Amino acid sequence: MAFNAAEQEILDLTHQLLRSIAEADWEAYESLCDTSLTCFEPEARGQLVQGLAFHRFYFQWGAAKKGHETTICSPSIRVSGDLALIAYIRLNQRITAENSPKETAVEETRVWQRIAGKWRHVHFHRSPLG
User: Fold this and answer.
1) Which fold has domain 5-128?
2) In the chain, fewer beta carbons within 10 Å around the N or the C end?
3) Which helix (H) or strand (E) segment is 92 a member of?
4) Per mean pLDDT, which range of 27-31, 94-98, 106-110 is the poorest?
5) What gap in Å lies between CA 28 and CA 38, rounded to an integer?
6) DSSP label at 46?
7) Contacts of 122 (CB under 8 A, 6+ apart)
8) Is 121 exposed, middle or buried (0-12, 13-18, 19+ CB in 10 A)?
9) Measuring CA to CA, which residue among 6, 32, 14, 3 is closest to residue 88?
């Protein structure tokens, strides 16, 4: 699928964000996110999480795994002025402690907002598939 320049920028930023998560690179993650980031995700047990502290816990825990790959499948991107939305399936591939591959997939929607001329990640919703 061909994307225009604005859509491609959002896709590239989302790839950077997911790479920072896979590598547990807090500095990169924090640089892409607004401090008021909100989310609904399975780890939050149905609660709306606000701010970055909840996420920092997982980076400090050492979420990065050797042999971790993330693929964005079937992205749908909408950019309207200073807001952008990207929805996709995130396919994760990991090598387990037993040295065998394991795949998981989740549905993700991420919202980006241009703040002071820079795109910042401001909200996401992540749900497991099946």
Assistant:
1) Nuclear Transport Factor 2; Chain: A, (3.10.450)
2) C
3) strand 83-95
4) 94-98
5) 18
6) T
7) 33, 34, 36, 37, 38, 111, 112, 113
8) buried
9) 14
What's the CA gap between 23 and 2, in Å, rounded?
Answer: 28
Number of helical H runs and strand E runs in the chain: 3, 6
Assigned token pair, 98: 């037993």
* pLDDT at site 5: 97
Q: Token digits for 17? A: 């964000």
Give me the pLDDT at residue 63, please: 53
Helices within the chain (DSSP H only): 5-22, 26-32, 53-61
The pLDDT of residue 69 is 84
Tally Cβ neighbours within 10 Å of residue 23.
15
User: CA 25 to CA 116: how far, in whole Å?
Assistant: 24
Domain segments of the chain: what residues?
5-128
